[in-house]
Amino acid sequence: MIFKDVRDGRPYPEPRLSTRDWSRIPPRQVRLEDLVTTTKVLRLDRLLSPDSTFFGDLFPHVVRWRGELFLEDGLHRALRAALHQRTALHVRVLELG
């Protein structure tokens, strides 16, 4: 199992942070097996694209909600890390509750 769970949708309120707000959160390392995804759909073209992070944040966005770590943005980066046999990923974690 790569992720702790795979869900369709987020159980927490939508974080209304701008790219600049997310960039103020320092990245930290988390284990892939501790992450819960918030989408069941992966766009293969984004996974295989060599410049998939060119226009976005280098670090995936994670929301900690009620003790769980939800992968808000960056599923393709997390899966790419798993395909490279990495067990952890550097992410930005927003503490919501």
Automatic annotation (TrEMBL):
Q: What is this protein called?
A: Type II toxin-antitoxin system VapB family antitoxin
Query: InterPro entries annotated for this entry?
Result: VapB-like_prob
Q: Where is this region: Disordered?
A: 1-20
